[in-house]
Amino acid sequence: MGDALLTSVLGAAPLNGPGPLFLLLLALAIDAAAGDWIGRVLPDPAALAQRVCAWADRRLNRVERGKTARLLRGALVVLALVLAAVAVGLIVERIGAQSRGWLLELAVILAALRGRSAWARVRAVRRALDKGGVAPAREAVAPLTRRHAFSLDEHGIARAAIEAAAKGFARKLVAPVFGYALLGVPGLLVWAVVDGADTALGHAGVRHERFGQTAARLDDALNAIPARLAALLLALAAPFAGAKAGGAFRTMMRDGAKAASLNMGWPTAAMAGALGLALGGPHRDGGVVITEPWIGEGRARATAADIGRALAVYAVAGLILALLVALLLWGIAGL
Hints:
This protein is an all-alpha fold. It has one domain. The chain has 13 helices and 4 strands. Helix 2 crosses helix 5 and helix 10 runs parallel beside helix 12. The N terminus is likely disordered. InterPro entries: Cobalamin_biosynth_CobD/CbiB (IPR004485).
């Protein structure tokens, strides 16, 4: 009885279709091949949660409310999203247990996986730098960074794009894979809605200091393991960018905790070590200079070619992730 339950949860094929790990591996392959197209067809649960939070922010986060009231309202918004994600996830899994119901589960996984889309958005920045120069590249990188994009020069744009690649790999590929492998569709959807809530509400500043606190803290908690796993995968992929994995590991361990973000410094540091760059650093927001530490000890004058190398590291790290899922599936099937 115990072995049957284990194989059902971890990936052996159920009576009516493929097991979860096989579905995950299939989704990773489809996402890698056509994820940017699929992303335009299937609704993104993180984007849906972001829109809900933006609406709640306008309606509930009012300056005349006290700090405690704003904290509680923000927490209730996030709680409602999490409960809805769990409910929908359980329904999808129940349908998935029926004949051909696994197709719905596969579609939900593909909707939440945005690895190829994140990769393609960074690639668009490189193409803009190569073909159009700084002005179109600023427009391309603006949605990928919280920095003031229109104050960035060519090297700042390249660094922001490379940082976005590292963070996108962690948040849009590794984290949803981890959530699904651990807790199935409910875990996948909970991660997606928390990611969207953090994007909408987890900003520094007075407005979201209380209302967005729950979203930011929950995002930090859920991303603690995936971010570090993503950093390890990027470090393992470093030789494919002409660097040594050991150097990426050292940079990750030394500088991973330097960033303002509790978790995103780890994949950023691994990418900096893999490419021999210094990422992060001070930047301008209008007329104000925002002081942030440098991550990595290489050159800061990143170029469009370095964005291409970052995309290669991203792709190889994604292949390693898929290989780990395949090995896990093979190991479970052999039980």
